Amino acid sequence: MNMELMSALKDLEKEKGIDFEVLVEAIEAALISAYRKNFGAMQNVRVILDRNSGEIKVYTRKNVVEMLKDDRSEIALAEAQKLNPNYAVDDVVEFEVTPRDFGRIAAQTAKQVVVQRIREAERDMIFDKYYSQKGDVVTGIVHRVENRSVYVDLGNTEVTLGPNEQMPGEIYEPGMRVKAYIIDVKKTTKGPQIQVSRTHPGFLERLFELEVPEIQDGTVEVKSVAREAGFRSKIAVYSENENVDPLGACVGPKGMRVQAIVNELRGEKIDIIKWDEVPASFIASALSPAKVVSVNVFPEEKAARVVVPDYQLSLAIGKEGQNARLAAKLTGWKIDIKSETQMSQLALQKPHPAKEDGLHPDLGDEYEIESDLPPRDERSAEDPAEASIQDEKISGSESEA
Predict the structure, then answer these.
(1) Which end of the chain has a smaller Cβ tally under 10 Å, C or N?
(2) Distance between CA atoms of 269 and 228, rounded to whole angstroms?
(3) What is the CATH topology of the domain spanning 134-199?
(4) Which residues contact 68 (CB under 8 A, 6 or more apart)?
(5) What is the DSSP annotation of 115-163?
(6) Which residue intervals of the chain bear CATH 3.30.300.20?
(7) Distance CA 274, CA 223 (A)
(8) C-alpha distances in angstroms, 154 versus 139, 181, 193?
(9) Among 297, 331, 312, 306, which Cα is nearest to 399's?
């Protein structure tokens, strides 16, 4: 142990990023283990490794007692006072006991311990780094694909992108650069376990944050996200600054910002919605691209009945209920969608029967929604989207089932 060791440890600090002091403490702990193994396991010893010269000194520590019982860990008060008259009972006396051949013996025993401590320090460093990045997006390179799992190299560690966290239809090949969202970071006996995803709603939110400076600086706020990965997503944004258009900021010049996100998500459709503190307005916007005639809200049930033109019903509900389901997730409200014809028929029922959803047709707060829809008698019924669709109610809880 000499200056070459100190130099090597400093080089290791630069290459591995492990603190020099952590390495020195690991070696000191290893040398204590080596001494106890070879020269006496019962001794209380302390090893000091000089940070400058690399010189090692071993000290045995003995407690000062009135009556000596174990000379391996104790020293009589009279003997201690011969060394220093100021010693008293319960003080600790140290004696240097560095063996002549300790360097050779210690090197053999300490090697494995030092390597293990270095490995642990590396694991702790990786854990601390990625734990602080939980909820952020990281970029890695696909290392291999096995049993539908994708192993991604992040540089100093490898993470697994499980089948459930992969976007439908995506094909991963070795060498491919891929972005992922860190869901959680846990400590395990095999090192830090980093859970990543490309389907998590937070992934979409972070991508917008990376692409939109106004979100980064807080001018535009992301209020909520609803996502069915690989197919369609909705994101609600808002800005307290009246001079800032949150939708325009997210779309970007010529749609460049949102297009970059769509490309990253392999063509996933994204609806950018303006958040509104008025639930009826927010719900109407959330059903975009469908146009809404009116919204009845039932605050106690946190439910809403939305009326749309007949030819917009299929668009409002979406393929297999996707549009309505995402709107319910985005707003946190149960949404019951009906066409104008269905509402007219419902209004003619006398007396009004109790509905299964508990929403009385004449109760609730009704809001007329301003839109560019033509008068009802001028609306075309030849729209290709017009179809005979049964009344469908979509709720946030049902969408997660």
Answers:
(1) C
(2) 10
(3) OB fold (Dihydrolipoamide Acetyltransferase, E2P) (2.40.50)
(4) 74, 75, 76
(5) HHHHHHHHHHHHHHHHHTTTTSEEEEEEEEEETTEEEEE-SSSEEEE-G
(6) 203-275, 277-401
(7) 9
(8) 7, 12, 13
(9) 331
Enter the tokens of residue 303.
Answer: 């439910």
Q: Where in the chain is the domain with CATH 2.40.50.140?
A: 134-199
pLDDT tens column, 288-305: 999 999 999 999 999 999
Cβ burial, residue 91 (10 Å; 0-12/13-18/19+): middle
CATH number of 277-401: 3.30.300.20
What single-letter DSSP state applies at residue 353?
A: P
**Residue among 158, 161, 144 at smallest CA distance from 190:** 158
Residue 294 CB partners (closer than 8 Å, separation 6+): 306, 307, 366, 367, 368, 369
Burial of 30 (0-12, 13-18, 19+ CB in 10 A): buried
Residue carrying the six token digits 């799992």: 149
